[in-house]
Amino acid sequence: MTKKIRIGNVMIGGGEKIAIQSMASTDTADVEASIRQTLQLEEAGCEIIRYAAYDIASAKAIGKIKEGVHIPVVADVHFDHKIAIAAIEAGADKVRINPGNIGGEEKIKMVADAAKMHHVPIRVGANAGSLMEKYRNEKRSIALVESTLENIRALEKCGFYDIVCALKASDVPSTVEAYREISKHVDYPMHLGVTEAGTERTSLIKSAMGIGSLLLMGIGDTLRVTMSADPVMEIEAAKDILQFAGKRLFKPELIACPTCGRTRIDLLSLANEVEALLKNIDKPIKVAVMGCVVNGPGEAREADIGVAGGIGEGVLFKKGEIVKKVPYEEILPELKTLIKEL
């Protein structure tokens, strides 16, 4: 189990719930726009938000943004230790740096000392695209691990131990292998993600494979689904991955069969209608829509309620036990009634 670390008002690691993170796409210096977007992300379910701190002014702006939001704020810093220190002093709840590119031991110590003074954790690690030169000829996953361990040792040498790790590649196998290996060597919390994962569809698949497989191994304390899209979509994807990995429950889950030659009702339309119905339900229940009574109740026994189609009718069931048989046009109203009764 990883150690517990506090990020603002959120605890991560040590068995705490896995937190959902995103990164603002606004210009950090535009405080109003950044607050506005963060509030939208909060409403969607974002629990930690990161901003690019690219100069001293943007680092200081993070302090002003913090006054208008309700979740921990993280400063993303590269190359300049002064920016990291400015963000810490402005009130950032965490800073993300790669000690290897921040400017040598003396500057690393200056950042670590500032973070220690203000009780601010530091996220370290490596992205495949920004590895130290000496690791570039090694296998990507090994290079990520070695680079991250070197960064960790640099902070530990300064007496700093409030560390979060992240090892991200744009390909799934390297990402999974790197996280699996680093978890054998350290007990710091792990921030998961597949970096530069692409647009909505590609990112969703790569993130589900990479993040999902790590979650099933018991690895991961925070996560971000990196998506070239509206950041709100990152939050929705993250919630789905956590729910389907069995780590957190957010909303109802639809179980639906793919249909076959035994199907005698318009199952595809019915499944879409039930899915639309569930969007307005906040209970973490499972609802099944099955194409026939041959396997329906049995295969969907894990569902709280469900329907198995017949010829112009449906058989309703609870926990695999048949409740009643109704005409097709009454299936949706009856499902609504059963859901309200749960």
Question: Any overview of this molecule?
Answer:
- Strands 8-7-6-5-4-3-10-9 form an 8-stranded parallel sheet.
- Helices cover 40% and strands 19% of the residues.
- Helix 1 (31-44) packs across helix 2 (56-66).
- By secondary structure, the protein is α/β, with parallel strands linked by helices.
- It has helices spanning 31-44, 56-66, 81-90, 105-118, 140-157, 172-182, 200-216, 231-244, 267-278, 296-299, 331-341; strands at 5-7, 10-12, 19-23, 48-52, 73-76, 94-96, 122-127, 163-168, 191-192, 222-223, 253-256, 286-290, 305-309, 313-318, 321-327.
- The protein is elongated, with a radius of gyration of 24 Å.
- It has 11 helices and 15 strands.
- The model has no long low-confidence stretch (mean pLDDT 90).
Write the layout of secondary structure elements.
Layout: E1 5-7, E2 10-12, E3 19-23, H1 31-44, E4 48-52, H2 56-66, E5 73-76, H3 81-90, E6 94-96, H4 105-118, E7 122-127, H5 140-157, E8 163-168, H6 172-182, E9 191-192, H7 200-216, E10 222-223, H8 231-244, E11 253-256, H9 267-278, E12 286-290, H10 296-299, E13 305-309, E14 313-318, E15 321-327, H11 331-341
Parallel strand pairs: 3-4, 3-10, 4-5, 5-6, 6-7, 7-8, 9-10, 11-12, 12-13
Antiparallel strand pairs: 1-2, 13-14, 14-15
Helix pairs in contact: 1-2, 2-3, 3-4, 5-6, 6-7, 7-8
